[in-house]
Structures are given as structure tokens and as C-alpha cells.
């Protein structure tokens, strides 16, 4: 594997710093283009540029990256801007998607009818027929991208062209250090207080694939550094074994053990 020029759009949020650090450790020349909202500590030698990753400027083309990575392509419009900028400038791309593209997610969220699909679901499994899965969940004054968010439309825009070979990596529900949404905050607070862990019924019955942040970033590193991944779709996540109520008991037990 030769040393590559890698441009990361985003890269200072949840999995991005782990991805950037590992790529730098492997000897690659890494540039991070981000808004500047998260001043995450990155290795000396990683170049930082500031701007809006949703609308990458033409100047980034001059970097001529071997691989350009988009960590935050949330809408079809963002995907189109990304392609317009890097067609003919980058050799290939890696774009982060989500497991919420699958039909199973729509059925679990009851935005589509039908029984849950059998698991495990392969990359060629059926996708949602509905669009904009979070449009009714966001507040009117919430971020505009939430109402326009749909990774299916992002993937379709990327797949509809052949000028820029793209690897799509469908993320699980990611947890761990840096989780701004903190999926388990309410439960961890109860554990720290030494109280009984109370989990809402809807969450207690929920089954969905998760991934620890550093492990998910490791999968992204493989997609970035292996040229054979070009043009392919990968789904990454833990094998689903138990509903969350079982997991919460396990976490509570470990928390109690640490306290002891």
C-alpha cells in the first residue's frame, strides 16, 4: 500500500477523528475540511481547512486527492455538490451512509407497513420505499437537513454516475466517546447515580445493529485504503442478538462492578 493523499470532508465529529488518526498513523497525507465547530485534537501533520463540507469549494480540486471521504453527506443536494466538485479531481471516493436505508428500518419505525425482514440483511437487501424518514421527527425550527435527509437519495445520486468511483459504507448506530447525541446518556446517568436503570418500553424491545466508534472507524479505514472497495457497498455492525433491555442489564452490571 502506497502513501496516499486523502481529503476528509467533516472528520471532526464522532468517527472522523479515529479515521483521521489511523490514516495519518499509516503514513498517508491527510487533509481535513470542516466547519470548525469541533476543534478535535488531531495529529501534527494533518492539514486543516475550514469551510462548509456540504458545499465544497472548487479550490479543493487542486488538492487532487487519491481518495476523498465524505463523512456528512445527508441529502441528495449535498451528494450532487460533492460529485460536481470532485469528478475528474479525485481518483475515488468513500461516502458514509446508514443502515436506515433498509426496508427493515422503515418497518421497525412503522413508517412502512409489513412484517420485519429476516436478519441478517445483506447489502442487496430490500430498501425503504418511503423517503425522508426523519421529516416528521424534527421540529420546524430544527436543522433543515433533517427534513431533507435521506441516505437512499444520496446513494442513488452516487450510483447514477461513473466518473468518480465510490465506495458506500452503511454505518450502524454508532456509540462511544464523542457521541453528541449520546444514545445511552439517560441510562448512564442512572448507572452513575446507582439507581435502577429504567428503559422506555419502545427502546426495551428494540433490536438494531450498533457499532463502537473506534471499530466503525476501523471499517472506514479499510474502505479508504483498499482500492478494491471502489464501486461497492458495505454494511458494518454488530450481529443483532438481544433487544436493548438485555444490553441495559449487562451495562448496569458492569457499572455496578466498577463502582464496587
Q: Which consecutive residue ranges, at least 5 long each, have pLDDT under 50?
A: 250-260
The domain count comes to 1
- What name goes with the CATH superfamily? NAD(P)-binding Rossmann-like Domain
How do the SSEs run, as a string of H and E? EHEEEHEHHHEEHHEHEH
State the helicity in percent bands. Answer: 25-40%
Strand line-up of the largest beta sheet: 3-2-1-4-5-6-9
Main sheet overview = 7 strands, parallel
- At the first level of CATH, what is the class? Alpha Beta
From the structure provided, what is the oligomeric state, counting identical versus distinct chains? single chain
The averaged pLDDT comes out at 87
- CATH architecture designation: 3-Layer(aba) Sandwich
CATH topology: Rossmann fold
- Whole-Å distance between the termini? 47 Å
Alpha carbon gyration radius = 19 Å
Specify the number of helices.
9
* Shape designation: globular
The helix-and-strand class reads alpha/beta
Characterization of the model:
This protein has a single domain, classed as Rossmann fold (3-Layer(aba) Sandwich), CATH 3.40.50. The chain is built from 9 helices and 9 strands. The protein has helices at residues 16-25, 76-86, 103-108, 144-148, 151-159, 185-192, 201-204, 213-225, 244-259, and strands spanning 5-9, 29-34, 47-50, 67-70, 92-98, 166-171, 173-175, 210-212, 233-235. A 7-stranded parallel sheet has the order 3-2-1-4-5-6-9, sandwiched between helices. A two-stranded parallel sheet has the order 7-8. Helix 2 (76-86) links the parallel strand 4 and strand 5. It is globular, with a radius of gyration of 19 Å. The N and C termini lie far apart (47 Å).
Amino acid at each position: 500500500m502506497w502513501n496516499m493523499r486523502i481529503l476528509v470532508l467533516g472528520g471532526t465529529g464522532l468517527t472522523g477523528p479515529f479515521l483521521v488518526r489511523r490514516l495519518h498513523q499509516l503514513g498517508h497525507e491527510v487533509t481535513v475540511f470542516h466547519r470548525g465547530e469541533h476543534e478535535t485534537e488531531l495529529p501534527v501533520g494533518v492539514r486543516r481547512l475550514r469551510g462548509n463540507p456540504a458545499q465544497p469549494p472548487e479550490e479543493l480540486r487542486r488538492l487532487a486527492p487519491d481518495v476523498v471521504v465524505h463523512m456528512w453527506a445527508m441529502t441528495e443536494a449535498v451528494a450532487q455538490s460533492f460529485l460536481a466538485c470532485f469528478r475528474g479531481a479525485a481518483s475515488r471516493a468513500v461516502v458514509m451512509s446508514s443502515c436506515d436505508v433498509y426496508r427493515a428500518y422503515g418497518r421497525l419505525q412503522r413508517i412502512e407497513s409489513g412484517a420485519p425482514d429476516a436478519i441478517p440483511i445483506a447489502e442487496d437487501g430490500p430498501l425503504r420505499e418511503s423517503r425522508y424518514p426523519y421529516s416528521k421527527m424534527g421540529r420546524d425550527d430544527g436543522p433543515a437537513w433533517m427534513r431533507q435527509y435521506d441516505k437512499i437519495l444520496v446513494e442513488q445520486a452516487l450510483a447514477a454516475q461513473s466518473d468518480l468511483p465510490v465506495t458506500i459504507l452503511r454505518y450502524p448506530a454508532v456509540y462511544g466517546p464523542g457521541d453528541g447525541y449520546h444514545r445511552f446518556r439517560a441510562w448512564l446517568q442512572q448507572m452513575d447515580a446507582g439507581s435502577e436503570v429504567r428503559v422506555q418500553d419502545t427502546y426495551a424491545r428494540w433490536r438494531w445493529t450498533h457499532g463502537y466508534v473506534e471499530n466503525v472507524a476501523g471499517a472506514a479505514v479499510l474502505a479508504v485504503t483498499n482500492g478494491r472497495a471502489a464501486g461497492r457497498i458495505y454494511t458494518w455492525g454488530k450481529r443483532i442478538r438481544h433487544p436493548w433491555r438485555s444490553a441495559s442489564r449487562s451495562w448496569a452490571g458492569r457499572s455496578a462492578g466498577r463502582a464496587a
